[in-house]
Structure formats: C-alpha cells, structure tokens
User: Fold these one by one.
Assistant:
Number 1:
Amino acid sequence: MKQKKQQRPLQWHPAFYADLQIELDSEKQNLIYENEHQLGTKPLEIDVLIIKNKAEEPIFKNIGRIFQRYNIIEYKSPDDYVSISDYYKVYAYVYLYKSEHNIPRREMTITFACSRYPVKLMQYLRREKACEICKMDDGIYHIIGTDIPVQLILIHQLSREKNLWLRSIGGKLSGWKEAEKLIREYKEHKWDKRYRSVMDLIVRVNRELFMEVKEMCQALEELMADEMEAMKKSGWREGEKYGRQKGMDRFIRLSILLLKENHQEQLLKASEDEAYREELFKKYHI
C-alpha cells in the first residue's frame, strides 16, 4: 500500500515578505527590506522592517503612503488575528528599535496586516484611546490619534486591481477569473523568486480551483516542482519570538504597562535613560 505523500506546511510569512516587495516594486529604489529583523543580540524579531533610502520622498503605492523612514510590519496569517496584546507587543518592539538606533518617533510607522478584522482591538482603540479609524482605500485603514502613525491592512479587502498579489494571500481566491489573471501575470515574472514564493503558496491553498482550469495545468506542474529551497525560515518561531534575553523581555513588559497607562513620555525617557529605566523596573516589580 502506497503511503500518502506528506504535504509541506504552508509558509505564509515568507510569501507575505515576498508579496510586500512585489506590491512596492515601483518604489524599490527607495526601500530596503529586512525579513525577521532581530532586536538586540538574541532572537526577538520584527516580522518585516522597511527602511526608506530617501526619507523626504513619498511612497505612492497605496499600502505605503503612510511610510516614514523606518516602518515596522506585523503580519498575521489568514487563520490568525491582531489582538490587543499583539498591538502593545509591536509598540514595545518599536520603542526598543527606537532606543537601539536613537530614532525620532516622527520617522517611524507601524503596519498591521491580517485577513480578519480585529473587532476587539478596534473597539478598544476607539473606547480607551479615543482613536479614530479612517478608511483610506479598499482594505487600508489609518488609526488616527496614536503617537506613532499606525495603519491596518485587511488583506482580503484589498483591491484586485491595485493589490492583486497581496490580496491573493488573504485566503481562498474568489474564482477561476482571479486565478487566471494571476497565472497570466506569473508567466511574465516566473523567473523572479519573489513571485515563485507567493504563487507556490496561492496554488497550494487553491489547488482544486487551479486544477479546474485545464489551461493552467502546465503552470501548476511547474510551480509545484519548485521546492523553495531559498526559503530557510518557515513562518514564526514561537519559542524565539518573545525573546530569550532577560533585559529585552523586561523592557517589553515595562513598555506594555506604560502604554496601557498612557505614559508615553515616561516610556520615551526610559528608552533613552538607563537609570530611569531601572527605577521603573523596580516601581512595577519587573
């Protein structure tokens, strides 16, 4: 009896990282990408860090219009969501990155990208933080009232015309027309490993749909033959994500407490003044 072939796990994060570069390809001369950027000397990782080469030049692509010099991206796969704790965790990452590199707040932004609308987080930001949620484009929302510019990208709501590739990793495709459009575009870029990474994932999630379209079978065979050997990091490493370095862990816990109490100025001072930071550690018993 033949054994059933074991399927490779879906690698959402490498595909999302490649997809961001595809979406922002028209701005590539002004952007530097860092995947799973480590904070400090031990693993505590930002999902994606995007740095503008020329801070004064605007980004015209809809998902990047909010960008300043340093842009922290937090991504959630389709079966995950952004919680209130995730929101503060990323804020803590931002302040830690700011502290390490002595960056002004005005040069930083935060982007949350997910496929599920974070109802509890949005309610919390409106009610507790008096924030306003403004829709800027299909699937793109800016959160007004924070000390660092924040945007929410709902991947499944993005425009098919403006954001075909990023939208397509938001879950199941809408139908064969969308699959066919992806195949046509992929054929023009299949030499590009970024497109191969994204398309490999899309095909595996929507295998039955692709198989229904006979004209796509040859492209499907080519795609599934790619083993994605260059993608050595598969998804999040939960054991490392929260960090192993005691000092970093203490700073994040302190950051979350101060942000919840609206003590941004204290957090700023703590990020720059080691003695003051130690005082706060004692005060909050961290």
Number 2:
Amino acid sequence: MRTIFKLTTLLLFIVGINVHAQKKASLGLNLETGKTYYQSSVSNIEMKQNINGQEVNITMDTDTKTAFQILNEKEGVYQIKVTYPFLEVGMYVGPNLQSFSSAQNEDPFSKILSAMSHYSFELSLSKKGKITDIRGLDDYWKKIDEETKDIPAMQKSQILNQIKQSYGEKQLKTNMEMLTNIFPEEAVKKGSTWSKSSQYTISFTANIKRTFTVDRLSKTEIIINEVNHIATDNTKEEYQEINGMQMRYEMEGDNEATYTIDRTTGWIKNVNSTMKLDGFTHINAGGQVMKVPLEFTTITSTNDNGLVK
C-alpha cells in the first residue's frame, strides 16, 4: 500500500511538471523603477585579411560593464540612464598586444575610455525590448572631449572615430537590441518559434533574419535559442570613411546564440553567441579599388553577474 502511495505521488509530481511546462508564458521586460540592472559583456573578435597575398590577422578583446538605471516607466516604455562603470580593449596585431582600460590614465586611448566611464546618456526601451529613442549622446561626447583636452586633436579624433564604430548612436542601438529585442508578441511554450528582422550596424550595415525557439521553461528561467542569417546589401556601393580610408564591406554569414532569461523580470541572465562572416573589404584609394578577402568571427558572452541594486 505504501509503495502504491509513493508511485502515485511520483506520477502526480511528474504530471505537475509537464502541465507547468506546457503553460504558455508572455515574454517581455518587467523592470522595477529605481533599480539598476547590470550586464557584463566579454567579446573576442578575429579578423583575417589577405592583402596582396599577405595574410594580416587582427584580434581584439573587449570587456564592457554596463549599468541600466530605471528612471521611470510610462505606457510600457522604460526611461533608462546608461553608464559604463568599466571598459577595456585589447588588440593583437600579429604577435603584438596593446591593452587599454578605463581603470588606467596613462595613454590617450585609456584616458578616453576613463572619460567614457564618468558620464551617462539615456534611452527609451519598450517592454518588448525595442529601443525607441537615445538621448544625450551629443552632450556625452562633448563632456568626454572637454575632459581629454590634453590629447592632441588629430590623435583624439582618430581614437574617437574608432570608438564610435561601436558606441555611436546606430551602433549602440544595434548592440543593445541584439540582446533586448528578442521577445515575441504572443505567449509561448516550449518549442515555440518566432522571427524578427533587423539591421546590424557596426563597421558595416547588414540585414538580419533572426529565428528564436524556446528550448526550456521553468518557474525561474526561460532558455531561448537563436539562429540568424546576416548579409550586406551588395546592390549599394556606398563607401564610408574608416580610419582615414574609403571602405565598404561585402559580407555574409550566420550567428547562433543561447539566452537564459529571468522569468520574472525578463532581464538577460546570460547569453553566449558566435557570429561568423565571410566576404570582402573594398578599399577605394583615389579611384583605384582594392578587393580584400575578409573573415570575421565574434564570440561574445554576456551575463548580469547576479547584480541588481
């Protein structure tokens, strides 16, 4: 009799788990006004180019800690103050390593990173993770410029142009929405899939078709897998100035990512992604165009470190 009771209890427990797993969940952000949410993101970027038969490899590592202070929420849109408590960049060109950090104040690049950590800007973020507005960036860069007056103007301009390839308005929107703009409009369960289309804007602009699938649902977490295809619009031969050169990119590839999301707040607890692109860099030097083969690999890990204040 006791054995039958134990088996019945076990079966009811299993049925309960299955019923819970089949319940649909509405996904989105449910953040608390006045609190600050954190993200720590580490990226490894490898670029392989073949210039006139010579292979040139560049590796860059970045470590970025971001604080999102929720100022208020109105009609499903959060007003958020964004700061960077810590920024670090390491670059390998061949065997040589150059390292720069906001915690240092010894070289021009580090001085600018340090200044970036002292100021903030604001953005508007919908509960579905869409950035509707970024405010105060012009003032943000103006304050950084004023704090780094001791850096020669030409050198500072070159560094800022490099940094703004990742922290300009379009680039910030791209980077942040790759993490936040992932939620479906409809409630989902395990195995549910949905798609989103967006643009990737860093050193180049590309169209992205993103497909998401719910891998697991629990009382505390939701696991989502993403696969996407990235491709530049090669019908547009628009060049932009990068590091003093007129360049355009012709790239295509795929990205895979796995997200762990807090079921209560919708905040990203962890995400790991790998993006691989192949194609060409077109360099226009006085009307002479050089076509350079390029491989581009980015591996990124982002987590919240359990920090909410």
